[in-house]
Write a structure and sequence with these properties.
By secondary structure, this protein is α/β, with parallel strands linked by helices. The chain has helices at residues 28-42, 59-70, 82-89, 98-106, 123-129, 165-172; strands spanning 4-7, 13-16, 47-52, 74-80, 113-117, 133-137, 153-157.
Length: 178
């Protein structure tokens, strides 16, 4: 669960799950996302949700986020905490901490709210938010999407060929990749 919230200059909500300066009581970040979703629906606007580690923000991530935003009026992005990303991606990951990843995402014009979560999947967040659209990358097509039963429908963002965090990290280690 989240325990701190702040707002960037555009008004995007940042919600963190770890100890951060000025942290609010546990659950406030999720509360902010829920309030945003509720306000949007009350105004007749649709809510889109996507998630990921977003370890090193790259063109593939940007394409997914732009695609997600094109499907609705409000985009909520859930980011794996450092511990959650490590469990999913292995030792040495994430390359950047959750606070930096969340702040980078919140700075994007297409993102309205960023919530950092510590579970292996965002299913509980999706259950709470109940987005109109849940967006995952095309690599998830044909596999179960956690939380999909709580969303209006699931959309799959097109992949950007040859772009992935793993490949970028390989380049940084002196290995060649496209």
């Amino acid at each position: 669960m989240s325990d701190s919230v702040s707002t960037d200059e555009r008004g995007a909500t940042l919600a963190f799950d770890g100890p951060h300066p000025g942290a609010l009581p546990e659950g406030e970040g999720v509360k902010a996302a829920l309030e945003l979703a509720s306000e949007a629906r009350a105004e007749g606007r649709s809510v889109v949700f996507t998630n990921g580690c977003f370890d090193l923000l790259h063109r593939g991530h940007l394409a997914t986020l732009e695609f997600a935003r094109s499907l609705g009026d409000v985009l909520i992005v859930a980011v794996n905490s450092d511990e959650s990303a490590r469990r999913l991606k292995g030792a040495g990951r994430p390359a950047t901490g959750a606070a930096l990843r969340a702040a980078s995402l919140a700075a994007l014009g297409c993102v309205d709210c960023v919530v950092v979560f510590g579970d292996d999947t965002p299913a509980e967040l999706i259950r709470a938010i109940r987005p109109d659209v849940l967006v995952k990358g095309a690599e998830y097509r044909g596999t179960p999407v956690p939380g999909s039963e709580f969303a209006g429908h699931v959309a799959f963002a097109p992949m950007v060929p040859g772009v992935s965090t793993t490949e970028i990290l390989k380049q940084g280690r002196g290995q060649y990749c496209r």
